[in-house]
Amino acid sequence: MIINSQVVDAMNAQIQSEFGASAQYVAIAIYFDDLSLPDLASFFFRQAEEEREHAMKFVHFLLEAGAKPLIHALPDMINEFESPAQAVQFALDQEIKVTNQINNIMAIATEHNDFASQTFLQWFVTEQVEEVDSMDSLLQTIKHSGGALLLVEDFVRRKMAADGGEEEEGAE
């Protein structure tokens, strides 16, 4: 194994966190679909796929480094929210939590001069800045909309199109 064992343990915990975030984003997407807000639902389905991809990046990195990835049980998901703002606030809080987890893994890798892990983790450090900004922007848009969720739908649709992530019909 070419990476530090404490880094491996932290990355295995992160795999659980990333798969958990993916499942939680599916639950949030279902919440928005239930409200007949298809663009918000698509946005969160896309987020769920991204989180799954993040988990798989950790799995593959550990395998390539000669370590054994572990897949732990997922925590219970929250399926009901009082409002769209609460759902997005929850997602933002989750992204901030993940950012702190990634920073912690980077600190462990730095402490142990695990340069391979530091190089791998740098992508996640940058990605988390984007993820937190995206959720914060969505939350602020919901708050500024004054409850006009169709305006939020339009914002999300335009943002997804600009990011090249517009869903094709039936893609979910």
Characterization of the model:
This protein is an all-alpha fold. It has one domain: Ferritin. Helix content is 75%, strand content 0%. The chain contains five helices and no strands. The chain has helices at residues 5-34, 38-64, 84-111, 115-144, 149-162. Helix 1 (5-34) runs antiparallel to helix 3 (84-111), helix 2 (38-64) packs across helix 5 (149-162) and helix 3 (84-111) runs antiparallel to helix 4 (115-144).
Give structural attributes.
disordered C terminus, Ferritin, mainly alpha, 172 residues, single chain
How many independent structural domains?
Answer: 1
Q: How do the SSEs run, as a string of H and E?
A: HHHHH
Largest sheet data: none
> Level of helix content?
over 70%
Please name the CATH topology: Ferritin
Q: Mean pLDDT across all residues, rounded? A: 92
- Gross morphology: elongated
Radius of gyration: 17 Å
Distance between the termini: 39 Å
Quick one: how many beta strands? Answer: 0
Indicate the proportion of strand residues: under 5%
Number of helical elements: 5
Assign the structural class, choosing from mainly alpha, mainly beta, alpha/beta, alpha+beta, or little secondary structure. Answer: mainly alpha
Assign the CATH class: Mainly Alpha
The CATH level-2 architecture is identified as Up-down Bundle
